[in-house]
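Now for one protein, fold included:
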Amino acid sequence: MTVADSLLTFSFAALLLTLTPGLDTALILRTACAEGGRKAIHTALGIDAGCFIWGALVALGLGALLAVSELAYTVLKICGAAYLSWLGLQLLVRPRSSFGLSDGNHASRGNWFMRGMMGNVLNPKMGIFYVSFLPQFIPAGHSPLLWTFLLVSIHVTIGTIWSVTLILSTHFASGILKRSGVIKVMDRATGGLFLCFAAKLALSTR
């Protein structure tokens, strides 16, 4: 596989992966609708940071540990499922009636960069994906370290463009999305979705 073939093929595969709805998409959409575009951007940047962390672990060989160690995978899986459950329960138990801080719910004060990053880092599926997927697109004779970060950068760039597209799309529906009843339904629906992702992660296998 030539350098051009590797880049084009990986870019297409990364695009398909990015467009497939998952936790990242749900988190960005919910944050954009509930907290606004600025905090949604913070979430997207956190997710991007999580990708680079996984890329670094894979480049250093540590990510391969997840592929061979059942214990390491299980520990990270449990931590990730617990974190998602905590986020989901917060939204289910304490849905807001407005996007302001005066209603007693302080969710919007949270660090959404950290939430995006932790949601990504604590998902062992990302590690397994990078360990098994990235090496296929590294041309023979090239530096695995440099190419790992190059491929992750391509994935992050595509993901960021998609995140911005999602965030901008919510702007046109902001009037409806800011209604009290819609906010509560949205928080509870997102919380339920996070719990589903947590259950799926907890029951997953390598």
Summary: The chain has ten helices and no strands. Confidence is low (pLDDT under 50) at residues 100-108. The first helix runs from residue 3 to 19. Residues 46 and 114 are 6 Å apart (CA to CA).
